[in-house]
Amino acid sequence: MNFELTRTVATILPACSSAMSLSDTRIPVRLSSSHHNLTFHWTDKAFYVLHDVRKAEGTAPSSTLRPALTVSCQLEGPRHTRTHDVLHHNLLRVHFDSEANTLTVSYLKPKNKNKHAQLVVLKGVVHDVDPKVVETWAEGVMKALYEDNGVKRCRRLLVFVNPHGGVGKGVKLFKKVVEPVFLASGCDLTVVQTERRGHAFDYVKTLSLDYDAIVTVSGDGLIHEVLNGLAQHEDPIKALNISLAPIPAGSGNGLALNLIGIEHTDTASAALNVIKGRPMKTDLFSITQGGKRSLSFMSQSLGLMADLDLDTEHLRWIGDTRFMYGLLRGIITFNPCPIQLSMKVAGLDKDAMAKAFHDKKLAPQDPKDSIERTNSASGALPSLQYLPDDKEGWIDFEDPILFVYAGQGPYVGRDYMAFPVSLPDDGYIDLSIMPLTTRGEMLSAIDGAETGENFWLSQLQYYKAHAYRVKPLSKKGNFSVDEPKPGMPLGYGHHLAFFHARKAEHQLREDGTDEEISPPAPFLTRMWAGGKITWDIDNPLISGAKTTSSGSVLTALKKGFEKNRPMVFVTQKIEFTMEGKSTPSLVEERQHVYLAEGRVVRKEPRLVPDIPASVDFSFTYKPTPVTLFRFSSLMFNAHHIHLDKDYTTNVEGYPERLVHGPLTAMMLLETLTFNYPMAHIKEFEYRATNPMYVDRELTLNGTWVDETTAKVWCVDDEGVVGMRGTIKTAA
Length: 731
What we know:
CATH architecture of the largest domain: 3-Layer(aba) Sandwich
CATH topology of the largest domain: Rossmann fold
Low-confidence stretches: 1-19, 55-77, 371-375
Strand content: 25-35%
GO molecular function: lipid kinase activity; phosphotransferase activity, alcohol group as acceptor
GO cellular component, one term: membrane
Radius of gyration: 33 Å
Domain DAGKc: 152-291
Protein name: DAGKc domain-containing protein
Structural class: alpha+beta
InterPro entries: ATP-NAD_kinase_N, Diacylglycerol_kinase_cat_dom, HotDog_dom_sf, Lipid_Phosphate_FormReg, NAD/diacylglycerol_kinase_sf
């Protein structure tokens, strides 16, 4: 909302000295378009805007707000006066431009039942008033708004806008609401629109540390990414000392709820918090998994609570309602959480926790005690205190578990106050554990979840803990940390499920394969031999983006002819380019081997040399006939060796149906990303070495050669190596 003030019709007498009292000064201006005057007046209670509407000819009396400074207005008739007040907290900026002789007042009109908070900008030319008076008054107002309250004015902000987070409205909200508020407040902005998962992580690792705050226009996942990127900075303590401020544009927005309150999480109010908020300290949690350390700022969940988060990713478009849907679905399925849980407990008395929380909340606080951050703190992250060999003071949770929720809050979502006695800097992890109970008790626990009343349920175990440990007892299950899915890039290797030739059934060969790149007879038996995939980590494939795949035959090589085992290796080069991009996001070299019909299948497996002796990470699973059928469907692959046992044994000569080569390749990628979720893969080169068969337990192993290179391989339950490869990640 903008008003253009074209001229004043009043004179302020006398001119004020530099020691003028703000509350004794009133600045009148006039709106020519609506024929009424405005008078700005600061008091210790509020900032007032008086509207004097001209009706007919006459002379208006002097303002009578306060007697100290007289303002005379010569009008053309009687007037109607109305006044509205602006709370100091909502007043953004009062700026006087001495060269243009204009005064600009910016503030937020508070939200009501039907509307969110709205930006109002009043700007006008000041006439017949000593500019020094206006300049001194405007500067005095700004000092009272900011420095006197321990807040820096006109902050320098780094803003990350995630176009894919939550309900996908981040860019629109920023352009329409957030950016105008920041600019009206005089903030200095650097805006980065994230293009891929890990973009913000990489950006802040080398960040210049002269920003006053980092702003995220997204959900909680982008905050998680930024914090972990700052932890990788060369001076992580100093980097993490930069204030972090969320603008809620995701489906959970837990941090925004906790910082500014459940009643003030509209976008404009959150932007106001960025401008006027005072820095506060909060605990961060260290998570170690697979030998690597990451940070969490809000929550970690296992069992039902992790399932309701991660299994409703496809419902982000409905906002935080997806969590309640996921909870109800989880109560129906009611799967226990197969983990072994140990804790280093600091407290378990709920009454004592509640008292400590309320005492802290009621303790008097002087706003001036909160000051802007200093840059004196620096150095490496503190060392971990509770190492795996630490046994003293740990207790095991013996009962079967439905879910574990750990972290701080109180809110993790608008409908769920998970940690009602959480304090931001008490040095503890709040642990909420629900033992396996009945569906009826879980349904009753939903009532009051938004206000934290389920904290008092007798069956809910609640602890203050120094640390906790979890050991999975099953290969299945979810582990959710701060909702770490800030964007929607396609997962590594997932492009293999797209861009297949859609041949009609009558165009396929007898074995179910197509002959698009096949050599002539007798080389008609096809096997997946290996390949190489290269990702542009600055330009990832995005789910929902229109993408073109273009391929060509790179090489066709004859091998084994001299040994009477003739084969033809055909390598395709395939580029995947999104619409509007000039370079491909992904380049794949895909190699098939074509064998002559009637060849004899090798009975003994090949010995694969140079397999690493140590394993840093691994994953084990058993591909069943259902697994192969589903993957064949995804790949639009009707090759009989994956589906038809009689064909595979009687025609091809193998003892059982074969696991797809690309399935094993994808599982090697998934094994690394499962163990190292923040890894950014740049390249994967692999080769099939032996057939892998259905219904055999397969183990995907990996070991780090250096900080960015991992050797990976797949081995079956008889020790046969079916595939090996090398994965290169970004530093």
